[in-house]
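Issue: copy button drops trailing tokens. Both records pasted manually instead:
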Amino acid sequence: MSFDKVVEFMNKAVGDGDILNLTRSYTKDVNGVLTLLGGGVCAYISDLVLENFTVTPLAGNTSGIDSLFLKVANSSITFALGCVYRPSSSLLKDDITLFNQICNISNSYDKVYIFGDLNLPNVDWPISGSRPYSSSSQLLVDLLLNSHLDQLITQPTRFRSNQKPSVVDLVITSDDSSISNLEYLNPIENKDTKTLFKYIRITLSGPVKTVKVKDAAGMVNENSYTVADIFADSFAKVFTVEPLFGMPNLSSVCNSNSITDIKFSADAVSEKLRKLKVIKSPDDIKLYSSSANYRDLERDLRAIYDWTHDWLLPLNLDKCKVLHLGNNNPKHVYFVDNLLLSCTDSHVDLGVVVTSNLSWTEHVQRVASKANKMLFLLTKTFSKASPLVFSKLFKTYVRPLLEFANGVWSPILQKDILCLESIQRRATRFPFGINRPPYCERLRLMHLCPLSDRRKRGDLIITYQALSNSFSPMRHLFPLNTSDRTRGHPLKLPMICDYTFLSTEAWI
């Protein structure tokens, strides 16, 4: 049995079975008729409860207050049910009319059960006779005392921000012995009733059933295969039969049954190939050498040019660049087909920006810009994501941009480290809003860790893979300590004692 304030659109065409299955519904607004824009109260009673009972609405009009009173009777028992919603802006004269009607009903029936929201939060339950109340609250207290009615709700039912929890939803009865074991559940939502309505819709919605469809003979079918055929025939009507007179005619008909009779004309194939517009150039060829061996590099350039010329794959000289590494580099000039190759201070190779001074600042700025753009799109698309959901989005779309090819590059300057970490710091702020916890706590709640820790973890993984695999192409980059003075496992790296590495951050 349920009593509710009606807040959905209703009209007279809505039947009892359309609202809830296996129930009878009784609705009434403030004027005693159904309204279009919500309003009123309604009662849903299971058919199992009403199997041997007759329900009759009781006459009465409480202007300004939504109320519904029902007489429920069978051969052995008769009682009254009531559902009331009193708005907080109700007038005193309307309150007097309502309480007089409740008093008359309690005098006419031995058992009375009234449920509703009376919006009188200043009444203390159980009733304390020493405290003064407002006019409407005092009317309710006098009604309960004079009519020998009990109000059974004693714990707060309304929880709103910046307000003290209060009791506004009441259960009034003349027979408190028939109602026992009241259970107070946690509020579904503090202030928004949309969550409750969503829960009700999800609860009432079951699996999708096959719709009933009439066939060509007018018979109603609910068999899934028959219904599918009816829909398929209906959809097929939009396709028309096209005539064949517009089909091109073949110049000659081949009557051969053997595939060996197909003939190709070499001249025709050559003509077709000559008309193809294809950019024929190899991509991503790298040559490197010490500046002292620049003659070897020039010889390699001539060899590549000759090979591409012989195979009709000319080099795109606009994309050919020279990158001089080191501050003391003599910066030799190089030519291809008597054309000078242009020099550059930085170059993007497989997504990594390599500069002439081998600094990663420019690469850090590039990946930070891409990550910030992706983070902006996520914040606009998922404006109300929870911390765990946004953490998954960050791990999927943003963090890979910050960690791509981490084994090749790693920031050393503090400004670069802070630049990368600031993106993750900004991402953790979004799901918490203004009142957010500290950064370390946000990382814990979102199951994240600092990016510097992940870079160290990645370096350790690469080192382990290089040392544990004898055929690793990186094995020669990690010389082992062959001294007998150390104990433990044999996979130990020697300590480099050089002034050059004093200011370099440890990467392992």
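Record 2 (pasted manually too):
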Amino acid sequence: MLGKLLKEGNNKLAEKGIGIKSGAETGNVIRINFL
């Protein structure tokens, strides 16, 4: 159970890291979607 929770936590951190790296790209996509 702990191993699974740690894996999920690491995946979430990795997603956040990817989100920060591609923040400009996703920001542009979000702006286009809202406009």
